[in-house]
Amino acid sequence: QVQLVQSGGGLVQAGDSLRLSCAASGRPFTRYAMGWFRQVPGKERDIVAAIIWSSGSTYYADSVKGRFTISGDNAKNTVYLQMNSLKPEDTAVYYCAAVRSYVIKFREGEYDYWGQGTQVTVSS
């Protein structure tokens, strides 16, 4: 089974950078799609970025395109979200997720495994 452990959240200022990590303690990600989601109080959990592990194909939400980068390290069985030029509106709890798939998945209900979430707060 895939177990996801997140790290890398914190409090930063607008314009700063932050990298989130999501490490698997179970099966490798070789045959999986991986996604990063974020959620703020009172709102739904929305996709930020996703990657197909086998092909490297990626997807980014319009709100983060050009600022965020999703990537993976096969040797460490870890997926990353590099966040640059952070804005206050990026403040949220960020979650990584996984599902066995060779195509991008966009919705929360399509993912089977989830990390515990980590808070990212961006001050103005």
Explain the overall architecture.
- With 124 residues, the chain is mostly beta strands.
- 0% of the residues lie in helices and 50% in strands.
- The chain has strands spanning 4-7, 10-13, 18-24, 32-39, 46-52, 58-60, 68-73, 78-83, 92-100, 113-114, 118-123.
- The strands form 2 sheets. Strands 2, 4, 5, 6, 9, 10 and 11 form a 7-stranded mixed sheet that branches. Strands 1-3-8-7 form a 4-stranded antiparallel sheet, with no helix packed on it.
- β7 and β8 form a beta hairpin.
- The protein starts with a strand and ends with a strand.
- The relative contact order is 0.32.
- The model has no long low-confidence stretch (mean pLDDT 94).
Which helices and strands, and how do they pair?
Layout: E1 4-7, E2 10-13, E3 18-24, E4 32-39, E5 46-52, E6 58-60, E7 68-73, E8 78-83, E9 92-100, E10 113-114, E11 118-123
Parallel strand pairs: 2-11
Antiparallel strand pairs: 1-3, 3-8, 4-5, 4-9, 5-6, 7-8, 9-10, 9-11
Order of helices and strands: EEEEEEEEEEE
Q: Any idea what the shape is?
A: globular
Structural class: mainly beta
How confident overall, as mean pLDDT? 94
Largest β-sheet summary: 7 strands, mixed
- Estimate what percentage of residues fall within beta strands: over 45%
Per DSSP E runs of 2 or more residues, the count of β-strands stands at 11
Mind telling me the C-alpha Rg?
13 Å
Give the end-to-end Cα distance, rounded to a whole number of Å. 40 Å
Number of helices: 0
Helix percent band: under 10%
Unreliable segments of 5+ consecutive residues: none
